[in-house]
Amino acid sequence: MTTQPATQRLEKLRPERHRRTGRAALAAFLWSLTVIPIGLWQLLDPATGPFSHELYDPTVRLPEAVPDWAGPAALIAAGVLGLLAARSTRWALPALFAVAFGVVMSTTAPMSLAGYLCALFIPLLIAASPVLIARGPIAKTIAGLAVVGVFTALGLTGVIDFPAVGDFLSMLGGRFADIAAYMLVQVWMTVGGGIWAALALTLLLSGRDGQPAPAWLAPERAARWGRTAAWIAFACSLPYGLVRMSWLTPWAWIGGPLDSSMIDPATRVWGLCLGLAALGGGVLCLGMTYRWGVRWPFWMPGLKGRPVPPMVAIVPASVMAAMFTFMALPFAALAIRQDAPELIWSFPFYVWGPALGAATLAYAIRRGVVQPR
């Protein structure tokens, strides 16, 4: 008597499963199309191509005996093969492409960009927090006026030098413009790794029709191992966050004690922002295993008590989990080349990425977004 309902559930899940696999396969196909012109760009213009930039430091360096055209030619070939691999019904080949583009082709550049963008966002979030927390239009107006008043007073008293801030942002924008092409290509390689990983995971979780899902993928089991994974991910955010925050104290440290008197105020501010970004991300990991990851907590203005749309947590967490995992090898290579072993433990991406990915998968299973087999 239980066979018919189970069969009906399987029939309902099958179209949605095929749609998700189809979307992931289409994304992998389209991404592979873009890789071909990137490879041609490097092949036809080796002097100024995206892989000739002074900042480019590949994780895996080719021997000097290998001709310069071999790398871009291999990239073009990988793009062509990707057009075929996107149609694969097995997860192994997409997983291989994920490793090739996400790990081998990636550098530390995307992670550095993401870190500094998050750090730039922290002051804006702090400044806007009184307005966000205030309830009602009158309270928000008063909070907004208070924030403007505080910053005006800080500017008039010289605590904040707004012209200097403007010059800094202008300089930063100019620097980003100078490396835009290089950075976009590096980010795009990492995006490709994520797309192939998503296709591999989709195929792996789909399994074969008619076979039951493993017991560990059941929602109640996922809740248990997902909580463990979330706490591990949170713990991984502590080394980097606390090291950066130490720049605000007389005991500044990174790979060893620093002379605090040599750290200028701008560096201290960067340390604060980067530390808060890392620690804030660690706290958000825990949201996927507690109630405030399912319903907005009391301190979220206008959203208190409402259900959290699952993708609001799943999408950014999946992106960061993929990036952290992909960055593990590039950061380890960087640490070895620069004789900076502290990078290996202060950036524990080799644990952080998989743990965050596991916590995200468990959250998706509990919220019904992922229904294996």
Automatic annotation (TrEMBL):
UniProtKB keywords: Membrane, Transmembrane, Transmembrane helix
Membrane-spanning residues where? 21-44, 69-86, 91-107, 113-134, 141-160, 180-207, 228-249, 269-290, 311-337, 343-365
Residues in the signal sequence: none
Q: What is this protein called?
A: Uncharacterized protein
- Which species is listed as the source? Glycomyces artemisiae
* UniProt lineage: Bacteria, Bacillati, Actinomycetota, Actinomycetes, Glycomycetales
